[in-house]
Design goal:
The complex is a heterotrimer of chains A (243), B (296) and C (349). With 243 residues, chain A is α/β, with parallel strands linked by helices. Chain A is 34% helix and 25% strand. Chain A contains nine helices and ten strands. The longest helix of chain C is centred in the first third of the chain and has 27 residues. In chain C, α13 packs across α14. Chain C has a domain of 216 residues. Chain C contains 16 helices and two strands. Chain C has a two-stranded antiparallel ribbon. The chains are: A alpha/beta (243), B mainly alpha (296), C mainly alpha (349). Chains in contact: A-B, A-C, B-C. At the B-C interface, α4, α9 and α11 of B face α5, α6, α10, α13 and α15 of C.
């Protein structure tokens, strides 16, 4: 396996608080890597650094072998690195189809073509079928349930055929049935060749789905290995239980 | 001393002295933004209103503008609270940022209309007997009024600093500025802080207005001149940062004064816009702003 | 394009085209010129303030720019047929776009409130420059234009049609952008700019583009205005009330809609004239204007069209829900605030 995403010595401080502190991390191509850690360990900040929403104070970010340090989210997206948000951020006043199409990636020359072209629609329809959302295709996203919005956000970032998807708590706030649905879609896409980096609090979900598991504490990577070893690692236990 | 160096030093002195007053005006503005995330376009109008109040107290009752500041401060505080309660609190949360901008603009127009009805539109100035005297040291002129204004602004800023750092209300305000949600979790009543904070911001306009009336002739439309300068200062300093606003006020005012004395007053009003654009080019969050755009 | 909207647009255009032919008095045409001017400018403002969600408070700077450009051009060129000023309007628009582009590029990298501040600052700087550069602009004395050599009976016609064309251009551009990926991008930006950036929307480019087009249209209206008034003064060409007019009409009619700004202008401009007529030029006018402004903001912040559209939708939803079952899987959002509420940054999570 080769490294799809490599982070070396990433740092980010807010005022005096070091949210991410000399953190290094590798995501192997074809893996579903979990990123876990206690609250305040810097997971979300690290996500924001990787996806370009925050500028790191230091450190190097490599994606597909290329240096992407300091790239903005749009450029990373076009290179195949994308994310979802913890709060399921969709565009509420746009229809489900439009939510997919807007994320489909189009060049400058396409700006003046109609909002939803025939080929946009057929691409969106394939995904909607896969996510069993065809019946809500023309509804505004604001009328979806929270769980459906999470699915929609996930489906939307797949429109660009990404190589690496960062999922920020994909199961937070959704019901057990939806958790299973989400897991199935992740597995399907993983089988189709997409790599995942997942922040998640639901440990059963992580243990079922992810390998390897990376543990973050105080902005540092303290463990990286198969899920079976995580629970025995003394450092990890310390981090979670406190000393 | 050669002429141009002399002019330069005179410009710097003038700029620093004026900068103190602008710092006071802008501190209220940035405080309001920090607490409520409201860009208060009525701050200039509030300053002019306070200038009118102290002008009237001076011409009708012979009270020195510097002595009536406590009274006008109380009045302006009350007015600020009322404005917040009546016009800003009812706004819905979803697009309150856009709406509050426009609502405070409307409040500015309302105040302007009110002032031009009460005081007409002729220019007024508060002419005390010390208005035109000045001291000269080493060939540099220090106008008494400007020195007084500067000292007074420092005192007012000092009081504001104490209020923010040494009182319970100040702690609540600072907590709200830093993180409204956790402040609320810690038991800060954000609605009350917002109303009182807006009052506090308006109250800084009282001292600033008294001083403004001493320094410049003004009429009801003068708030337009103020508002763009205040806003640039606040953005330069980093929205919500009081310390940043003070330093930005000094920078803007000094460079404007230097441009005016060394080159021409024509371009001095352009100076702050150029500084504003340059700073935004390099640091979109302002000189001392910490808030980056982000998705946290 | 649906039949209904085609008919609606056709009737609107035909009625406005025919209006001068109906022999109205001069004051009616004068009022209509200002109504069309504000409708055009409000519609242009809507591209940035309504669709992109960036409230510009400095559009009057570009209105003044257009006015002064036309005024200055005809300090050096003669007006013979009377139509020359209309022909240079595209240049005025182009200059505004060129001036607006870098300013927008810088100011739009930040948040909407900083953008509003930069634009309002620009307005006052432009006004001060118009006052101070008196060798160029005539300063407070103003700038005189040649008197339009039109026959008295049809004096207003050229101005009327010029404003009408700018309005139609404005609405046409709005319509096209709504139907295209530009509109899709703008919708995404307005709803959640950070998210839009993260799914590859050309955020910065689309915002700056819409700003440039918007100010170009406003500058063209300013050019027509300067010629119609024959005198350009700094305090009128760069009047914040002009910006506020555009904003207010757009808010009243409905932001982010095609017809909203037009409806707003057709209500507010005559209303404004009536207020000015009843209250004279007195200062009470300003109070009344600000009062109306506040009432609109507080009582109907979303505007007439969206409010009506909501009513209709709700009625339909009620009708529909009495027939079909409610949507399944209605688990409430439990984590975090709504999707488009900005969460304060800072601190680790």
């Amino acid at each position: 396996m080769t490294a799809l995403l490599e982070i070396v010595g990433a740092r980010k401080a807010f005022g005096g608080v070091r949210a991410v502190d000399d953190c290094s991390l590798t995501v192997e191509e074809g893996s579903i890597t979990a990123l876990i850690g206690p609250n305040g360990s810097g997971k979300t900040t690290l996500f924001n650094l990787i996806t370009g929403y925050l500028k790191a104070d230091g450190g190097e970010f490599r994606f597909r072998g290329r240096d992407v340090t300091g790239s903005d989210p749009g450029r990373l997206y076009r290179q195949g690195l994308t994310r979802t948000f913890q709060q399921a951020r969709v565009f509420p006043h746009m229809t489900v189809t439009e939510n997919l199409v807007v994320a489909g990636g189009y060049s400058w020359r396409d700006l003046l073509v109609p909002r939803v072209l025939g080929r946009d629609r057929s691409r969106a329809d394939v995904l909607l079928e896969e996510f069993r959302m065809t019946h809500v295709a023309e509804l505004p996203a604001s009328e979806l349930s929270y769980g459906q919005r999470k699915l929609l956000e996930f489906a939307a970032v797949l429109m660009s055929e990404p190589r690496l998807v960062l999922l920020d708590e994909p199961t937070a706030g959704v019901n057990p049935v939806m958790i299973d649905t989400m897991e199935r879609h992740i597995r399907e896409r993983h089988a189709a060749g997409v790599t995942f980096l997942v922040v998640e609090h639901d440990m059963q979900f992580v243990m079922r789905l992810c390998d390897p598991v990376v543990v973050l504490d105080n902005g540092k990577e303290i463990f990286s290995g198969p899920p079976s070893e995580v629970q025995q690692n003394p450092l990890v236990l310390d981090a979670y239980l406190g000393t | 001393m050669t002429g141009s160096v002399h002019a330069l030093i005179q410009g710097v002195v003038l700029g620093i002295l004026t900068g103190g007053v602008y710092a006071l005006m802008a501190s209220g503005q940035t405080l309001i933004f920090g607490i409520m995330k409201v860009v208060n376009l009525a701050q200039g109008a509030l300053v002019i209103l306070a200038a009118y109040l102290s002008y009237t107290l001076f011409t009708s009752f012979g009270l020195d503008p510097l002595l009536t500041i406590p009274l006008t401060t109380v009045i302006m505080f009350g007015l600020g609270v009322v404005i917040q309660l009546v016009f800003l609190r009812p706004l819905k949360r979803e697009d309150s940022a856009q709406l509050s901008l426009l609502v405070t603009f409307a409040v500015a127009l309302l105040l302007e209309g009110f002032m031009s009805v009460v005081w007409k539109t002729t220019y007024r100035s508060t002419n005390t007997d010390y208005a035109n005297s000045s001291w000269t040291f080493w060939g540099i002129q220090f106008t008494v009024v400007r020195v007084v204004a500067f000292v007074l602004s420092l005192v007012a800023l000092g009081l504001l600093f104490l209020l923010l750092n040494r009182t319970k209300f100040g702690r609540a305000v600072r907590a709200t500025v830093q993180n409204p949600m956790s402040a609320e979790l810690l038991g800060v009543e954000s609605k009350r802080v917002a109303a009182l904070g807006f009052g506090l911001g308006a109250a800084t306009a009282a001292a600033a207005g008294s001083v403004y009336g001493l320094l410049y002739p003004f009429n009801s439309g003068s708030h337009y001149d103020l508002i763009s300068e205040l806003l640039s200062i606040v953005v330069l300093g980093g929205l919500g940062s009081v310390g940043g606003a003070v330093i930005a006020a000094l920078i803007v005012s000094t460079s404007s004064a230097v441009v005016a004395t060394v080159f021409s007053p024509t371009w001095s009003s352009f100076t702050f816009f150029v500084i504003l654009i340059l700073v935004l080019l390099v640091r979109p969050q302002g000189l001392f702003g910490t808030v980056e755009r982000g998705a946290l | 394009m649906s039949i209904r909207s085609l008919v609606r647009g056709g009737v609107f255009v035909a009625a406005l085209m025919a209006l001068p032919l109906l022999g109205f008095e001069h004051w009616v045409l004068n009022l209509m010129i200002f109504t069309l001017m504000y409708a055009a400018m409000s519609s242009a403002w809507n591209l940035v303030g309504g669709f992109a969600g960036y409230p510009s408070l400095g559009h009057a700077a570009f209105f003044g720019l257009g006015a002064y450009f036309v005024g200055l051009w005809f300090q050096h060129h003669a007006v013979v047929t009377g139509y020359e000023p209309f022909l240079v309007l595209p240049i005025a628009g182009l200059i505004a776009a060129v001036v607006g582009f870098p300013i927008a590029w810088i100011a739009m990298r930040t948040r909407a409130d900083v953008f509003a501040i930069v634009t309002i600052t620009l307005l006052f700087v432009a006004q001060t420059l118009a006052f101070n550069l008196d060798s160029l602009t005539g300063g407070a004395q103003g700038l005189a234009m040649p008197t339009p050599p039109f026959e008295l009976a049809r004096f207003e016609w050229p101005f009327y049609y010029a404003m009408l064309w700018i309005l139609l251009a404005s609405m046409g551009i709005t319509y096209l952008s709504m139907r295209s990926k530009v509109g899709l991008s703008l919708d995404a930006i307005r709803a959640d700019e950070d998210k839009a950036l993260g799914v590859g929307v050309h955020v910065q480019g689309v915002k700056v583009l819409s700003f440039s087009i918007s100010v170009a249209l406003v500058a063209m209206a300013g050019g027509v205005w300067a010629y119609y008034e024959t005198f350009t003064y700094p305090q009128f060409a760069f009047d914040p009330i002009i910006t506020i007019g555009m904003v207010l009409m757009c808010f009243l009619g409905g932001r982010g809609t095609l017809w909203g700004p037009v409806i707003g202008a057709f209500i507010l401009v005559p209303g404004q004239q009536y207020l000015a007529y009843r209250l004279g030029g007195s200062q009470f006018y300003l109070i009344a204007y600000a009062g109306v402004f506040l009432l609109i903001m507080l009582l109907m912040p979303r505007g007439i069209l969206p409010t009506i559209a909501d009513r209709v939708r709700r009625r339909r939803a009620i009708a529909a829900s009495s027939e079909g079952p409610p949507p399944a899987d209605a688990s409430p959002p439990t984590a975090g605030p709504g999707s488009n509420v900005p969460v304060p940054s800072g601190g680790a999570a």
